[in-house]
Amino acid sequence: MRKSVVRPLLAALVVLPLAAPVLADGLDTRIGEGLFRRMWVAAPTATQAADGLGPLYNARGCAACHPKGGGGRPPDPAVASDQGVGFALKMNDDPVYGRQLQTNAIPGHRAEGRPTIRYRDEPVRFPDGERVTLRRPSYGVADLGYGPLAAETVLSPRLAPRVHGMGLLDAIPDAAIEAEAERQRASGGPVAGRPNRVVVDGVARVGRFGWKAANPTLDRQNAEAFSLDIGMSTPAFRDPWGDCTAAQTACRAGPHGDSKQFEGLEIPSSVIGLIDGFLRDLPPDGGLEPPKDAEGAALFASVGCASCHRPSYTTAADPTRPALSERTIFPHSDLLLHDMGDGLADGVAAFEARGRDWRTTPLWGLNRLAAQDGRLTLLHDGRARSVAEAILWHGGEAESARRSYMELPREARKRLVRYVLGL
Ligand code: HEC
Ligand code: HEC
């Protein structure tokens, strides 16, 4: 459908009050924001313009898991009905349940189940006597709707990350990420990150989105969310039943919203394009200037954090997007995969990422959350409640950085945490 027809239709569909600051402003960005916040409904509806949810799904819209573009939190095990926010259980292709446990279903269909978490407290003692208690999670599924999971199925919990600054990360050239991997390898130390290499439509690209860098572009990450999380079809993932497998016949035969006026899809390219555009222009909550705290930066480097949390990258030249073009940004990530040891391992592979590998998480934007240290939900499954806990889970290639941190005098440890919470 032509843009001129789609646009008024979409403008009528969305609410436009939020008005988050964006890198480039315009009506399309505002409509994209409205679509990001939109809660989709089951087919059929009179307009066909907002339907096709599910039949199985995790949440009804992007903002349900990424509220205000922020990250999620895991379910509270003390509250039986709590589903958390933006918490998903991925699986390594279960023959019945597929790639992700869908926790909700439209009327007449059955949800796949609900994740359960148990935490075991593990005290850690610093050489100077200070104590921090880590919580070690174990995961399961209750109320399985379609029989048992396959014996080989491994659960991989994932929390919805913060989604600010994605356009800038997308604009970092593959070659710059590959050069950083080469530099780390040549240095001969314990830190040797590798790019995830993802082949999409026959083209190999460097993966950078998601906790295992399994998606090479923002567009693809967003389209995958419609399929896996919301159960809606897009040009990149054309099945209207999302993650339902051939064994889930009722789901595959269920109502869907593919519609002629929308390219035979539930979410046509115009709609996904507007959401991509909104996220591309959503600026990071920090990280556009070099950190001011030079002493903190020196500590961060000397302990070994900067080996993976590389302070800066420069984006590629792109005359069509001046706000994203040739900018030096400070995400504090090399966007490479690192073996983080057994404590964090999920045992699930994604392209070239293995069971112990995770992408270095960009640390920009933590300043917005600093006041919550002690109640944060950090790491891929939200198990860490503070920056100190997050560091103490670091193992594998990060083992020596963790040890150096533990051996710092108490004041210096505080100083380092303060620095990280200022990024
Ligand atoms: C059910 C909750 C849920 C919904 C709904 C959801 N997401 Fe996500 N999102 C996640 C999780 C979990 C991840 C991490 C995925 C992974 O690592 O495999 C993620 C990752 C992302 C990322 C990558 C962030 C990064 O740091 O690399 C982007 C961008 C994103 N989502 C955008 C969207 C958009 C756009 C929508 C709506 C079309 C959406 N999400 C809907 C849970 C959700
Ligand atoms: C070998 C590479 C490596 C080193 C060295 C390293 N990190 Fe990390 N860091 C990672 C990876 C990979 C993750 C994601 C792990 C996960 O989520 O399971 C991460 C996650 C984090 C997080 C959680 C961020 C979030 O939003 O969830 C913080 C905070 C952090 N690192 C701080 C540090 C600090 C401080 C140091 C130095 C003491 C450090 N890291 C050293 C690779 C590294």
TrEMBL record:
SUPFAM superfamilies: Cytochrome c. Residues 1-24 form the signal peptide. The keyword Metal-binding applies. It comes from the Bacteria. The keyword Cell division does not apply. Residues 291-423 form the Cytochrome c domain. Pfam families: DHOR (PF06537). Coiled coil: none annotated. Keywords: Heme, Iron, Metal-binding, Signal. GO terms for molecular function: cytochrome-c peroxidase activity; electron transfer activity; heme binding; metal ion binding. This is Cytochrome c domain-containing protein. It comes from Azospirillum griseum.
